[in-house]
Each structure stands twice: as C-alpha cells, then as structure tokens.
Design a protein that fits this description.
The protein is of the alpha/beta class. It has two domains: 180 residues, Rossmann fold (3-Layer(aba) Sandwich), CATH 3.40.50.720; 210 residues, 2-Layer Sandwich (Dihydrodipicolinate Reductase, domain 2), CATH 3.30.360. It is built from 15 helices and 18 strands. Strands 3-2-1-4-5-6-17 form a seven-stranded parallel sheet, sandwiched between helices. The chain has a seven-stranded mixed sheet with strand order 10-11-14-7-15-16-18. Helix 8 packs antiparallel against helix 12. The longest helix is centred in the last third of the chain and has 19 residues. It is globular.
C-alpha cells in the first residue's frame, strides 16, 4: 500500500504551492502545521472537485514527539516550514526516528550539512531516507552536475555549479526566503575541496560562468551538491550509475589497482549563487563584513529579531516579477580543463519547488526510494527519472 503523505508547513507560501500541486495530481496529503484555523481554511479550499471532502489536517508544533505520531515507516513527511536552522531539526529527527521518507524545501547551508552529517547516520540505522533541499535549492544543480559528470567521463575530478536569475528579481522572493537569507549572514558556509567538506564563510569565492553567451558572476555558497555529487560516478559498463568506491562525506582516492578502469574520485565541488549580477562583489564584501563583526554585542539578537519580523509579515512573491532561471554545471579534469558543460533553464523557482516536491513525495510514497540515509536527488530516484521529472516541473536542458 502507498505510504501517507504529511505536509508540514502547509499554510506557508511554498507549502501552499506544494499542496496544490499534490491535489492537482490526485493526491490527498495530510496538511499539518501550528494554526488550526488556517489549516482548516486551506483544506476547504483544496477539496477535490466532485468530492467536496476537505483534506485531513493535523495540528502539531515543531517538536519530535507530535510529529512522530503523524508518520510511520513508509510514510512521507514533507517540510516547508522555515527558517530550517531554527525550526527544522525536530521535523527531520521525527522522520529519522520512525523510518519515514523526509523531504524539505530548505536552501539553508548549515541545515543541509546537519542533515547529511548528523541525521544521515541515524537514518541509515532506522531505514529512513532524508532528502533535504529538494526544490530549486538544490535539485537543478544536482541534476546539471550529474549530467555534466556523465558527459565528461571518468577523467572529471571537479564540478562547478552556478545558479542565475535573469530579469526582475525585486519582489520575487517570499517572506520565508528573505528570513532565511538574513539568518545566514553570520552562519558559516562550506565547500568540497581536496576530497573533504571544509568550512568557509559564505561568499568566500567569486567565479564566472558563461550563460547563454554572457559572462555571469556568482559567489560561493554551501549546498547539497557538495555531499551528493561525489557519490555519483559513471558506471564502468552500460549506461547506469553507481556509487563511487568508498563514497561518503569524504571522497578518498582509490589505489592504482582499484582505479584501473574506474573513474577518478570527484574531489572538488563549488556551488555559486549568481542572482546579484554586477553587485556580486558588493554582496561578497557584505558577507565578509558581517563575519568580521559577528562578536559585536547584540548583533545576532538583532538579526534574529529581523528574521521573526520577516516571518510575521508573510509576504509573498509578486506575480508580476517575471524571471528566467539558469543553472550551469561545468565538469573539469585535474588540471582544471573543462570537459563538459550542461545548462538547465526554467522560470519561477517557487513554482518549480512546489511541483518537484510534490512529484518526489508521490514517487516516494508509491514506489519508494533507492536507499536509506541522507540522499541526494539522483541517488534517491535515478538520473533519467529525475531529469524527466524536472522537465515536467519546468527545468529543461538548454540547447548547446
């Protein structure tokens, strides 16, 4: 029997998009959150045509106990309630404890790292599957990076991924997104360098990509690609994909005998945010300044207050802010020479997030995922299936 789907944070902007995408696919999720009245109103809005029966709701705070009561082994718990660094731990812990499938919409690097490093080993023991950052942040980059690695062949040892938005981005972010960005000013970032996930400040590096004939800059950020992509290597035969030998959070080089006929380990992954165009360097300086004054008395408290104020505002993106999104992945060899480039193009990141989260939840509930632990998108569903789902959700491979 298919597992149940519980959507926590359903009354938020992203949660509403996910709920509507699920209902449009004929799925009846359980809507969960803290506000009984808002849940009831949303459930009534989403009653299926010709049915008239409102969706089931469940009131639960972000605490492991109540959330564990909502899901069991084989069920799917989807979380869109942020900022995840402050409210997300209890949700993922509940899924890991009971052996459920967990998905979330976070784009917050510290939380992503916690899921892979802290909760992943626990999930392996219980049979849970944890799929963090399963939205615009960072499914398209994982897909583009995996496609670039497959095209590059066994000599690839490094991947750069860049996220870019064209046209008007003012007013194109939700209150939750703005709260998350403010909350990250004093949080450390990370990257995969020399085969290890290393801590570094957000925007420590700036690099350039070619996007549809233009040179675009982005600054470095932490993401799920740093953990997920090193586990993927082209198979030695056929067209399938296998995990690299010794794959895990640290990519360790194999011996010469083991390397015979096998791909090189992926030792360097960099992910870059290119939303700010010519202001990229200015944003980089801003992150450096925030890090240098972190110990100023009251600064963190002031930022936390700003986060809470943004959350209370419940602002939604403007529907008039039409944008285009591009995600570029470049796979390189040990000398830095580019071997393959893949670009994916799409539109509104929020719409994509709603659709891809809904698809993943339905797929996991009906067919399951490929493994347990903290997983990347390709590990969970396979490269070709994921590419088709992303195309249906609005991100397609751009022509060369």
């Amino acid at each position: 029997m298919p597992g149940r789907i519980v959507l926590y944070g359903a009354t938020g902007y992203t949660g509403g998009l996910v709920a509507r995408s699920m209902v449009a696919s004929g799925v009846r999720p359980i809507l969960a959150g803290r506000d009984r009245n808002r849940l009831a109103a949303l459930a009534a809005q989403l009653s299926l045509p010709g049915d008239g029966t409102a969706l089931e709701t469940a009131v639960a705070d972000a605490e492991p106990g109540p959330l564990r009561d909502l899901v069991g082994p084989g069920d799917v718990l989807v979380s869109t309630a942020g900022p995840f660094v402050s409210v997300g731990r209890a949700v993922v812990r509940a899924a890991a404890d009971v052996g459920a499938v967990y998905l979330d919409s976070t784009g917050e690097p510290p939380f992503i790292r916690q899921v892979f490093e802290e909760f992943g080993p626990r999930a392996e023991g219980t049979g849970a599957a944890l799929l963090t950052a399963f939205g615009y942040d960072y499914v398209p980059g994982n897909l583009a990076g995996a496609l670039a690695l497959r095209a590059a062949g066994p000599a690839a040892t490094a991947v750069r991924v860049g996220y870019f938005i064209s046209r008007n981005i003012r007013g194109a972010s939700s209150a939750g997104t703005r709260a998350s960005v403010v909350g990250l000013l004093l949080e450390p970032g990370y990257a995969l360098r020399g085969g290890r996930v290393v801590t570094e400040r957000t925007a420590a590096h700036v690099t350039s990509f070619e996007v549809d004939g233009d040179t675009r800059q982005g600054f470095s950020i932490g993401s799920s690609e740093h953990f997920a992509l090193p586990r993927l290597r082209p198979a030695t035969s056929g067209s399938g994909w296998v995990a690299a030998p010794g794959a895990g959070l640290v990519a360790t080089p194999a011996s010469g005998r083991e390397r015979d006929g096998m791909p090189e380990p992926l030792t360097d992954v960099g992910v870059y945010l290119g939303w700010f165009g010519r202001a990229t360097r200015l944003v980089q300086y801003g992150f450096a300044l925030a890090g240098s004054v972190e110990r100023v008395p009251g600064l963190r408290q002031a930022l936390n207050s700003q986060v809470r104020r943004l959350q209370r505002g419940r602002g939604e993106p403007s529907t008039a802010a039409r944008i285009r999104s591009d995600v570029v992945a470049v796979a390189s060899d040990a000398s830095g020479g580019p071997l393959a480039t893949v670009r994916l193009s799409g539109a509104d990141p929020y719409s994509f997030t709603g659709r891809i989260l809904a698809w993943a939840a339905c797929e996991a509930a009906t067919r399951g995922v490929r493994s347990a632990g903290a997983l990347g998108p390709v590990e969970a569903f396979g490269l070709d299936l994921l590419e088709g789902a992303c195309a249906d959700a609005g991100f397609r491979r751009a022509p060369d």
